[in-house]
């Protein structure tokens, strides 16, 4: 089971309004939406933050791509060209999962 590297973060702001005192444990299965997710074949030099900007509208959502693919590293590491990544398109589902799981902490 994948553990979020941010599970012990003290405060996370969502949409500039809501805060969560601790990031809950979330796995790739929690954020997948099989009907709407995109599958992208990585080309040389592509980065998670640029993919997040292109497909999710904000480069700061790179961690959502990590969650959807059980990737434990973050920015600064290049993904092997040819790798197929799932890009979650339902951002609200991810935020709602974080909020729901945070309430059970």
Description:
The protein is of the alpha+beta class. The chain has one domain. 32% of the residues lie in helices and 13% in strands. The chain is built from 4 helices and 4 strands; from the N terminus they run ββαβααβα. The chain has helices at residues 28-31, 48-56, 62-69, 91-103, and strands at 12-14, 18-20, 38-41, 84-87. The strands form 2 sheets. It has a two-stranded antiparallel sheet with strand order 1-2. A two-stranded antiparallel ribbon has the order 3-4. Strand 1 and strand 2 form a beta hairpin. Helix 2 packs across helix 3.
Q: Could you give the topology of this structure?
A:
Elements: E1 12-14, E2 18-20, H1 28-31, E3 38-41, H2 48-56, H3 62-69, E4 84-87, H4 91-103
Antiparallel strand pairs: 1-2, 3-4
Helix pairs in contact: 2-3
Instruction: Note the total helix count.
Output: 4
Roughly what fraction of the amino acids lie in strands? 5-15%
Question: Largest sheet at a glance?
Answer: 2 strands, antiparallel
**Could you list the spans in which at least 5 consecutive residues all have pLDDT below 50?**
none
Q: What is the H/E order? A: EEHEHHEH
Radius of gyration: 13 Å
Helicity range: 25-40%
Shape estimate: globular
Provide the structure class: alpha+beta
Tally of strands: 4
Overall pLDDT metric: 77
Instruction: Enumerate the strands of the largest sheet in spatial order, edge to edge or round the barrel.
Output: 1-2
Tell me the span between the first and last alpha carbons: 18 Å
């Amino acid at each position: 089971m994948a553990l979020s590297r941010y599970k012990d973060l003290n405060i996370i702001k969502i949409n500039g309004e809501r805060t969560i005192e601790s990031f809950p444990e979330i796995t790739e299965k929690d954020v997948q939406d099989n009907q709407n997710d995109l599958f992208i074949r990585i080309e040389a030099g592509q980065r998670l933050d640029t993919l997040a900007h292109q497909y999710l509208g904000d480069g700061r959502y790179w961690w959502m791509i990590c969650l959807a693919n059980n990737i434990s590293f973050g920015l600064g590491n290049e993904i092997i060209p040819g790798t197929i990544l799932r890009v979650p398109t339902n951002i609200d589902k991810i935020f709602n999962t974080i909020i729901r799981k945070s309430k059970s902490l």
